[in-house]
Fold each of these.
Amino acid sequence: MTAKIYPVTITGVGKGLPEKVITNNDLEKLVETSDEWIFTRSGIKERRVVSGNETASSLAVKAGIEALKYAGVEAIDLDLIICATSLPDNLYPSCACEVQAQIGAVNAAAFDVVAACSGLIYGLKIANNFIKTGEYKNVLIVGVDVHSRFVDWNDRTTCVLFGDGAGALLVQRAEDEQNDILCIDINADGRMGKELRIPLYGSNCPLAEPNSPELQHVNMNGREIYKFAVNRTPESILNVLSKVDLTVNDVDKYILHQANIRIIQSIAAKLGEDEEKFYVNLDKYGNTSSASIAIALTDALEENKINYPSTIILSGFGAGLTWGTAIVRWRAKDHRCHSESI
Ligand code: ACO
């Protein structure tokens, strides 16, 4: 007897962004750089960074509540919360547990997934498997990273690229039996981990050898990461499409990890696709890491850049090194204007 497979759909999206905007001109006052260098090399004009009481979990809560409102679902009905984050507020408790407490999702299990900028796709794979096997019905995934705490603000090669933010997806068992998650592929190559790291410094055994107070910062080999992204991402997209007998002609929109406009343009060229099909908002937020795909999907919907229904590619690449792609059908309606406060 074969086990029943339940249909899965994405019903909600949301974002949580810090208030404070840092422009390229602001960065010119911190490091030797220019708006022209940053914009031509990356496509970034400005980014958001946390200030005051804002934290990874406060941004994640904002994004999560928005996704619930979008779908018209109550927090109490959640079965699972997955936070995709590499830069949470604490090593423990997890960001997902903090979100669970703050939104009152008392019936949900909660854990974090560490896969950097591919984290949202890893989270979607996990949510999809839990729902399609019938174990859960309602899973909230929140991608969140606060890079501003972990970049060296004296290092112009990294500090200009990143921004803080959170983006969320609500994934549910589809009521009408139509499955909208067509295929998800996740990958990793740990041998290349050294090319993009935030090591935890300090002695392995502080009892024997006391720690010196060193700080954790992004270490990145920009050129290797660039090559990795422009090779692995199109490969991964073509791989998932072929698994479900589709081609690029069947794709209506690409929502890729928003790291660098030149990476997105190169991926479009490798796929032989028109750049118009690639949604871009990295000019406003920089690279928000685990959050970028869900923030981009939210903005694309808000700006009416996605038709109903649509076939969308979600694809991420990042530290690990990790990468992953999902093909999803989008047909969710926005319930936000009808829902009461959660
Ligand atoms: N302002 C001015 N000059 C700069 C800056 C800056 N902010 N940063 C570097 N430079 C200088 C360098 O010092 C170098 O000077 P030199 O020639 O005198 O030595 C020159 O600019 C060229 O530097 P390169 O590193 O060769 O610049 P490149 O054209 O490779 O662009 C970049 C650098 C933008 C980082 C590119 O390699 C890239 O996009 N890589 C991918 C990075 C990325 O997307 N990472 C995140 C993805 S994964 C994740 O999201 C976690």
Amino acid sequence: MRQKILVTGGAGYIGSHTCVELLAADYDVVVVDNFSNSKPAALDRIAQISGRSVLWHEGDLRDRALLQRVFSQYAFAGVLHCAGLKAIAEAQREPLRYYQHNLEASLTLLDAMAAHDVRRMVFSSSATVYGEGARVPYREEAPLAPNTVYGRSKMMVEDVLHDLVQSDPSWHIGILRYFNPVGAHPSGLIGEDARGSVNNLMPHLCQVAIGKRAELPIFGHDYPTPDGTGVRDYLHVMDVAEGHVKTLQYLATESGLLTLNLGTGRGYSVLEVVRAFERASGKRVPSRYVPRRQGDLASYYADATRASSVLGWHAKRDLSEMCADAWRWQSNNPDGYI
Ligand code: NAD
Ligand code: WQD
């Protein structure tokens, strides 16, 4: 009998790649997703890659009746909680919606888990919880001071999980703070289907290369970094997916709370990413310097040693592989999932 894992937001970017890794590790996967930022087609592609299907239920995590039905139907061994909203600027404009989808949805899910005695969860958090004050490279014990609504919504869920474990140590909780996941599954069948106004670097680069946008705006070139552009810790989404499976496996026997950075431990500047992308895609990407984007920090990257010492996890794929895989996905699927 395979263990069943609930993946919330499993049709999304991180969730879909994680489903592929879960299936490869011989788990059964059940997805709950409201498809607010994804399409069911992603789940067909996962099946195409894996040769095994994913069970899924369309619905919102805040719907208690839906969760009651789903948790009654399957005996889950654990939950990967990837569902959530993630657009920084949108969150500043619509804080209530973000707290509803990120915080309220998590509370409703935890309630259902407790009611059905499912106490193993991996939560998708973000390096954005560290905020400006922390020293680079960011270590997990650094104080949290997010400077955005989105970041605070993630920190609030982390606080809830912390309090939950304090009150009842029989929970097995993993908090994964991802740095900048990019790239796609090497098949080119699943990837980041960026909809609406694209704000992140890699999807924007892909859209310029495919001809959907004229040029890449480079937000600031007067930062105190080697070439003046912002520095981030980009990591391949398949490494992120593997990190989830390893954390889930670790939590099968270890209770309490485990908080880990998922990053490579090194940073690349915007210009370095642009050059790597041009090499990988064979496309020239016109770019233009524009003023700094509000809220951006100059440079940050992970101290990734804890994930290595606790899980034996480290990011294996380099920047050229991240760019080549992102481009394969984009060029094979110019309009995303249709
Ligand atoms: P995504 O938008 O591609 O996937 C999120 C999925 O959750 C989507 O399929 C969406 O339809 C679903 N969803 C949203 N609200 C829901 C709700 N209330 N009920 C049911 N389904 C809902 O985003 P992603 O990049 O895959 O991110 C996954 C998680 O990782 C998010 O929690 C995000 O905050 C976090 N994260 C992402 C990044 C990143 O750069 N992609 C970095 C750090 C953390
Ligand atoms: C990367 C670098 C930009 C676009 C965000 C969230 C973080 C996490 C990952 C969810 C920066 C520069 C970007 C462009 C550019 N998500 N840039 N031109 O801001 O590091 O992180 O996504 O949790 O929480 O904050 O990622 O990809 O937007 O930017 O010059 O068109 O690229 O200034 O230096 P960011 P990003």
